[in-house]
Amino acid sequence: MHISRKQVWMSTKDYLIIVFAIFLYAFGFSAFILPEKVVIGGVTGIGTLAYFLTGKVYMLGLTQYGINLLLLGFAWRIVGKHFVFKTIFGATVISLALSFIPELFPEPVVPGQPFMSVCIGAIIVGIALGLVFTHNGSTGGTDIVAAMVSKKTNVTVGRTMLYVDFCIISSSYLISHNITTVLYGFVVLMIISVMVDFIINSNRQAVQFIIISEKWQRIATAVNHHARRGVTVMDGMGWYTKHNVKILLIVCRKMESVTIFRIVKSIDPGAFITQANVNGVYGQGFDQIKFKKDAKLEQQLDEEAYQMAASEMGHS
Fold first, then answer.
1. Collapsed DSSP state (helix, strand, coil) of residue 278
2. Model pTM?
């Protein structure tokens, strides 16, 4: 199978960004959260508990790596081997990073401000995890569980992590007997979940354009060729002028909106344009619908379609 240079570059870029995000994760955790004795949940949280029990920093990475190998066995068929390979890579890098980076930060970077420290750390960790997920990778642990659930349902990655990590953070009280650090752990959990969803959804945000122009044909063709997006042409009438007009409907990623504006401005600077954010776009080059089928509803729809077809044949 021939692999183009573009595919090689895209794959290499993914791995480079995953490595950067993992070290960003390790820095945020080691410099701001771990020195405050806070358990953040997930496999890293379990590794943190092992570290607190043994006093050995390497237990962070070792515990995390062992659990990740177990979870990857379950993830293989559900999320695909490509995701698993990147997860093995990510889990290996983060286990190594968490085995030595914590030793560089024996004290909090922001001394005497535990709440500020954990908030800053949570923001950094959330951004890092979001970057890893948007490039089809994983740091392992509950990320693997979240990815499996996200593949099958419309439950967000951040929300899945929230459910799983809640139990792990709560169990940390049995070791620390400090309700303050447990509460800090929940604060970290909430911030990480919000940041993960923010980073992932910002990559998927879509906008809808409505464009009215006398040069609608040139604009539609240019959008097809240069923006690589489809255009729907609709008939309309300006009530003030009583003239018939053509209306262009375009849906694209938010990051592509600048290209649409440039195309329209180059062809017809006086065109009428509206832009609106779209909450969800599915099919035709966008996201896939992940709702499970309702067998009963599907049967009813099939019966209705059969009755309509029989009725049309009867009339003919």
1. strand
2. 0.66
Q: What is the distance of C-alpha 73 from the center of its chain?
A: 23
pLDDT in tens, 66-82: 888 887 777 676 666 66
- Residue 271 CB contacts under 8 Å (≥ 6 apart), including other chains: 211, 212, 213, 215, 219, 264
Calpha distance 121→115 (Å, rounded):
10
Query: What's the token pair of residue 299?
Result: 């049967």
Contacts of 4 (CB under 8 A, 6+ apart): none
Please report where in the chains the tokens 């800090």 appear, as a residue: 184
Residues in the chain: 316
Q: Nearest to residue 46, comparing CAs of 127, 164, 130, 135?
A: 164
Q: Which helix (H) or strand (E) holds 185?
A: helix 179-204
Better-predicted residue by pLDDT, 77 or 16: 16
Closest Cα partner for 261 from 236, 218, 227, 224?
227
Q: Measured between alpha carbons, how far is residue 117 from residues 112, 123, 193 in Å? A: 9, 10, 17
* Residue-level pLDDT at 271: 93
Coil, strand or helix at 274: strand
* Burial (Cβ within 10 Å: 0-12, 13-18, ≥19) of residue 159: middle
Q: What gap in Å lies between CA 286 and CA 202, rounded to an integer?
A: 14
DSSP string, 69-108: HHHHHHHHHHH-HHHHHHHHHHHHHHHHHHHHGGGG-SS-
Q: What is the mean pLDDT of the chain?
A: 81
What is d(CA 200, CA 193) in angstroms, rounded to the nearest whole number?
11
Ranked by mean pLDDT, which of 64-68, 116-120, 300-304 comes out on top?
116-120
**How far apart are the C-alpha atoms of 119 and 27, rounded to whole Å?**
14
